[in-house]
Amino acid sequence: MLKKTSISILLIAIFFLESNSYAQTGINIIEPKATLDVVAKSPSGQNTHTDGILIPRIDRERAQFMTDIENSTLVYIDNSVTGTQTGKAEYINSEDFYYWKANIVGGIDQGKWIKLIPSNTAPSFFYMPSIVLPTSELDSRIINISNTNYIYDSVTKVFSVNLYTIFSNQFSTPIAKSNTNTELTSFVLPTATQYDYFVTYADTAVFEQITLDENGILTYKVKENSIIRNGSFMNIVLKLN
Fold first, then answer.
1. Which of 87, 115, 143 finishes a domain?
2. At residue 237, does pLDDT exceed 80?
3. Dist. CA 192–CA 240, nearest whole Å
4. To which H or E segment does residue 6 belong?
5. 120 lies in some domain
6. For 166-208, how does the pLDDT look when each residue is reduced to its tens digit (9 = 90+)?
7. Quick one: signal sequence residues (predicted)?
8. Quick one: which of 35, 168, 192, 197 has the most CB atoms within 10 Å?
9. Is residue 36 part of a domain?
10. pLDDT, tens digit, for every residue of 28-70?
11. Structure pTM?
């Protein structure tokens, strides 16, 4: 009889665990309100014990060699000088929280570790650094077929300019800088789609059929017989999304 009772209790326990395997989990709370609901033991007052969640701490080299990383994985880099600032660790330049931003290309994840809250947080929007837009198919940048940032389609008469790549290049290779120990690369996000692009002004006497795509490709036509003036320009705004 005792044996049967023990088996029955075991079956009930297994059933209970199975029925709750998809339930919400709470710590310091009876009725959790999310998949995982962690409540501080002492949300106020002068209690000295530690509340909080301790995120896994690893060094840059470890982050660099991790594989099969799930998108949004969060870690704390406690040593940013081990390994090298290349590949997955291209943006790991200080001790801080980083999350994995996946970027699947051809079935291979070419993602990067991205700082969760950069110490030098970029503004939410800013103007595109100045560039001269080609208005003629004889422009040297158009003629140079190896310069794929500027393309002209002679059939449709559409100019294409890769704003993101031009922006990235300007911020990664400055002509001069005041401090040789600092770089601007931390302002450049790993993918073009992490910006939204806007043309806020354009000389409509010169430019027409202006479009932007999510990769930062600007396309436009130049009106026939238009006169290029000092005011023949566009204002382009990049906004972090």
1. 115
2. yes
3. 10
4. helix 2-19
5. no
6. 888 877 767 787 877 777 665 555 578 888 999 999 999 999 9
7. 1-23
8. 197
9. no
10. 888 888 988 899 988 898 989 899 999 999 999 999 999 999 9
11. 0.51
Of 115, 144, 160, which marks where a domain is finished?
Answer: 115
Domain range enclosing 85: 57-115
Q: In whole angstroms, what is the distance from residue 207 CA to residue 226 CA?
A: 9
164 and 211 housed in the same domain:
yes
**Run of H or E residues at 9:** helix 2-19
Specify the length of the chain in residues.
241
Q: What tokens does 57 get?
A: 């701490």
Distance CA 184, CA 173 (A): 8
Query: What stretches of the chain show up as alpha helix (H) in DSSP?
Result: 2-19, 60-65, 140-143, 163-172
User: In this structure, how many other beta carbons lie within 10 angstroms of the beta carbon of residue 188?
Assistant: 19
Q: How many CB atoms lie within 10 A of CB 36?
A: 10
**For the chain, how many structural domains are there in total?**
2
pLDDT in tens, 98-146: 999 999 989 999 999 998 865 555 567 778 888 889 999 999 999 999 9
